[in-house]
Amino acid sequence: MQRAKGIEVKSVVVQVAATLALAFSFTTVVVLLSGEPPLAAYGHIVAGSVGSWLKVAQVLRVWVPLVLCSCGLLYTFQIGLWNIGVEGQVILGAIAATAVLRWGAAVGAPTGILSLSLLAAMGCGGLWALAAGILKTRGGVNEIFAGLGLNFVAVGIILWLIFGPWKRPGIASMSGTEPFARELWLPTVAGWRISPYALAAALGVLVLTWWTLKYTRVGLACRAIGRNPHASFLLGLRPDRWMLVAMMLAGGLAGLAGAYQVLAVYHRLIPAISSNYGYLSLLVVMLANYRWVWIPPIAFFFAALNVGSIQLPMMLQMDSSLAGVIQGSLVLATLVVHGWARRRQRAS
Amino acid sequence: MHGKRVWGTWVLVVALVGALLWPGMATATDEDFIFGLLLVGPYNDRGWSQAHYEGGLYVQEKVPGAKMIYIDKVNPADRPGVTIPQLVDDLVSKGAKLIIANSDDMKDGIREAALQHPDVYFVHVSGDDALSGKGPANLANIMGRMEYGKMMAGFVAGLTTQTGKIGYLGPLVNEETRRLAASTYLGARYAWTKVRKQPEDKLAFRVTWIGFWFNIPGVTADPTQVAQNFFNSGYDVVVSGIDTTEALVVAGQKRKEGKKVWAIPYDYAGACETAPDACLGVPYYNWGPGYVRLVQAAKSGQWKAQWLWLGPDWSDMNNKDTSAVGFVPGPALSDQARKALDAFVADLGSGKVNLFAGPLYYQDGSVFVEAGKTASDTDVWYMKQLLQGMEGQSSAQ
Questions:
Q1: Start and end of every ABC transporter substrate-binding protein PnrA-like domain (chain B) (predicted)?
Q2: Gyration radius from chain B CA atoms
Q3: Average pLDDT by consecutive 10-residue portion of chain A (348 residues)?
Q4: CATH architecture of B29-145+288-310
């Protein structure tokens, strides 16, 4: 057991290193071809993401939603589902939170309204995931297609709300809704750029996810069904039901991330409210080899890249799309390395 | 396997060493004045953002010690998860003493950032926080009186159209875009009725909004398609109100197909270059002089939370050092139209022609400017609807 764990840790480290090497050698070539200094570029990214407490706080601000989504995805990956609909679940959470805040702004008691909006976001995200789950278990629709379809629907709904019923008075713009009053922002400490409540919540969710997956019936069921649905059915587990539970847990946490984007980051609803954190989280979890323990550092690395890459256009006048090249090649490298790892696994 | 691990270690070491060795910004001397510029689109968009970028270069040239740091594509579609206060933190940590935000879309973010950094000066372009009193003392606003530029654009469109149908490619609907579309219409109507002596009801002026300042695939309407629809349905001049050059690009393509159509781009003095043979001219902003004024105010401690709405220099509206807005006639403009334009500009400058004189009505028939009166600055700034005679939506449905 101890040895198996050691090998697994080693394989994750090797995979991460290989992905980085592949992605960064590719981007280094791109940077060199564009005639810019790659060392300086990477230096700026590092300094721009962990160079000061302020930067770290900014990275943590991105880390929170990534961790929330990734924890949720652990349940669905464990049970063998590819919950690509996580993006739409984030959006639905953001919509639900906004709905509660809009309604609650008139009612008063900010703390109550904020808590209610978090609950609504989890509920809505969960239900949106449940829809994909039911399509899978009852309709026989592959969860990837169901999830992607529902993502499109979610984008449609958010665009309609922003341009229609929730527009700013006299204005028709995709900029977003009217910002919320300050008492409806997630409380933070003066001078901080990250809400300590959000940080605490993300850590809490991490611990809770670990505990649930390791020690509870939910975790046991997810793992058993993920490994062998037929055997687990014979053992008296109902894969259908547990899949719906896993989907709802994932959707709930994604919804929470959506609420965080509204309450703590943008303070209003915008079309790009999810910031692609759902898709990014899928990569985080894949790169973490579906192990919770690797999620915090990998999410931190991805968040640091997001935050630090803004230094490139700012300091080197590198065409701003180069930041996207780094992220894009990381995505590709992840896929390549995963394929390579799986083939090795099968071979051994 | 071993090789890959070595590779990974290498890259990590290189990244870390690079960070340590990188000298960072050269330390600012007393003379240096670093200012930041947040651009909503690409710095080379041949439109709104490029005009600002060149304004920043002008400041570097004119103010000794001034140094610009800019970030472009500052919008949630291009940079997911990035917020204005976050970028302002970055710019301030690089030593920026004044920060210019060039988009209406940044209004809330820049106000939040200005509160977080009371010792840094902020300029929000096109906003009115300093006018409405919603912003803190370190936040000023600047805008050009593009109404004049748009009147000229409308004027040449009205002179040139052969079908009597002018299309306006609008961004999103707000007070700014309404007053600019309305100014274009007033210029077109003036040319149509006063110069060409055509009946007013034979002029069609349609505004189609795409939903944002530029194309965001899947979110906004596609400006290329909107422009094509205009040209395909008998509109032979399209006036652009968006940050980018789609209208002119499409007009250039249609010309190659043999259609007699024209377009008028917007924002940037060099915009006609994209398709010169279809370009009737471009109303543009010249941000340099206004920026210099604000940077010098901040540098010398004479800062005020002022709201600047800067007009053209009527003696020479294309003077780089004095005029905040201008109009460059395009290669496609006929000589006759060019002469008429010169006369029109002279009349605007002398005050002989005021297109914001009543009676003017909103689309729903209510009065915008009473007969015998002229609209004040705030009347124009806060225009509530499109004007009677224009087709298209005045606000969200």
A1: 36-311
A2: 23
A3: 60 81 87 84 88 91 96 95 96 97 84 94 97 93 94 96 90 88 87 89 96 92 87 84 95 98 95 93 86 91 88 76 68 82 80
A4: 3-Layer(aba) Sandwich (3.40)
